Structures are given as C-alpha cells and as structure tokens.
Amino acid sequence: MNDIGGVHIKYLLHCPRQLWLYMRGYRPERRSDAVAYGEAVDDTTYTRRRDIDLGEAKVDWVTTGAVIHETKSSRAPAEQHEAQVRHYCLLLERRGVTVQHGLIHYPLIRRTVTVAWTPQARALAEDTEREAQTVIAQPTAPPRLERSRCRGCSYTDYCWGDS
User: Fold this and answer.
1) Nearest to 101 by CA among 133, 75, 129, 112
2) 50, 88, 95, 104: most buried by Cβ count inside 10 Å?
C-alpha cells in the first residue's frame, strides 16, 4: 500500500492523471511559479507555527484540542482543500489523536473555512483514500481532462505539449 498524503488527495481531486504521473516521479511543479507563490505564502503566514511531519503528509499546524490548520494561497475555497484536511484528520486519528475538526485559512482573502470531522467525514476521507490507491495502481495513465480545466496546471506541457 502506498502512503497517501495531502498532495495525493489534492492531485486526485484536481486531476487523476496528475496523481498518476506524480506517483511515477514526474514532478514539473518544481518549476511552477504558482507552487513557488504558494510556498512563499505558507512561509510568511502564521510564522510562529511549525509543520507537523506525519511522514506521508505535512500538516501546517495543530492547536490545543486537536484542531488541524491548513493554509492555502488560493483566492477561492475548493473541495480539494477540504478533502486534504479530512485526510489529515484521518491520518491523525489513526495515530490515536482525538481530532475535533479542521480549519482552512485563506490569508489572501482573509477567510477561514471549518471542516467538520464526523463519522460521515471519516467515511468520505476513507473513500477518497481508496480512490487514490485505485488511480495509483492503474497500469496506464488516466485520460487527460478537457484543456480548459488544465489552466495553471504545471503538468499541462506533459498532457498537451504535442497538441
């Protein structure tokens, strides 16, 4: 079984092909301005907090009462962000932590979104994790998305370079 972290969940929900390529070592995000920008926002926001390294995932921080915090550079909340936080809740729960809920911080728009941690959220996180495992195990890459959904993706050249 592959260790599934937050980036795997994010890529699965953005584009299964992106997850499949990532797991096979294709990593164009290292050259991405958007990724560099997101890292800069993370490095300069909530600087008194420390990442929690779970091996397969890095949680931005956890506060008293086991509230998971994630910071995003996006200007719009997205389901994939919530799915990442649910996955972090699941990973911590598997380590014996009684998780309360998660919070996603969007410093650029000064907004915080609460992510519930309920039995339904746990089941959804487990389903998403299984879906990621299924995509990773496929012998061939999933089909590419419509080109309009690829705007800003660092994998665009791989998927659409010859088109």
Assistant:
1) 112
2) 88
Q: Bigger pLDDT: 2 or 96?
A: 96
CA atoms within 13 A on the CB side of 57: 25
Q: Say if 1 falls within a structural domain.
A: no
pLDDT digits (tens, 9 = 90+) for 48-99: 566 777 878 888 899 888 999 999 988 899 999 999 999 999 999 999 999 9
Q: What percent of the chain has pLDDT over 70?
A: 84
Residue 140: other Cβ atoms inside 10 A: 6
Distances, alpha carbon 44 to alpha carbons 47, 79, 115, 160, in Å: 6, 24, 23, 34
Domain containing residue 20: 6-160
Q: Give the residue ranges of DSSP H helices in the chain.
A: 6-14, 16-23, 33-44, 79-94, 119-137, 156-160
CA distance 105 to 111: 6
